[in-house]
Amino acid sequence: MRITIPHMDLKQIAESGQCFRWKRLSDDTYVIPGERGSNQGCEPLTITQTGDLFELSCSEDDWNSQWKYYFDMDTDYDDVMRRIMESDDEHAKECYRLGSGIRILRQELWEMIVSFLISQNNNISRITNSIDKICEKNGGRFPYPGEIDVSLFDDKSLGLGYRVPYLKDIFTYALDNPKWLDDLKTMDYDTAFNTLKERNGIGPKVANCICLFGLHHTESFPIDTHVKQLLEAYYPNGFDYDYYEGIAGIIQQYLFYYELLQKKRK
DNA sequence: TCACAGGCTAGAG
DNA sequence: CTCTAGCCTGTG
User: In the beta sheet, which residues pair with residue A30?
Assistant: First the structure.
């Protein structure tokens, strides 16, 4: 099927660091795994972009029942644009010019927890590599609690390093506490953040990433080394979190993406 | 060789 | 409370 979608750029999303299992076929075409949580067994989606027109390999029913939600079509990105343009935040405006096609995908919570646990003190190629290999060991599907033996993480070829015990702990905990994931989904941002931080290997940065990308708490503002640097460079007097109430996390994505582009140029 | 990469933990002060 | 060494490991 075909559909026009505003404020969406596949390359920008793919490089914004929120998804680790998109397969790039070209700058305009990506394959996105279909299986996610309770939707396991669904076909992967091939999506091609031409301007704001998108060609998708799924049916209109699949779009309405699943992918439309995944691409966050129920968030008002026109309003986000307005909030930036009506501000006096010149740096945010500049970032928005380059990254206005970024959306906060509605990805599956468990996959985000595991992915961002692996992401700490790590680089993108190693993260995707580790996740790919873990999925390989599970028949190409992302493993859910109980689906795999946690001793699998000891395999050195996965390149997980010191994060191995974190992964074993979280898989064991989620299996022993089957309500945990669903409970997280009902919590407000602060409660979810603190509940996540109770787990071994989840600190403030990882917890915020899970809140933003796994629970879609768009007020969550993860601060990694890059964001820390850009805040010091562009916001010496402090970032106005209050002005961006409710959408600071989306703004963070624009700032972060811009920062990556600048660093790539060097 | 050495710093660094989408950080966290534990221990010291 | 804040601060920081050490942690796995591939990359430049």
Answer: A24, A47
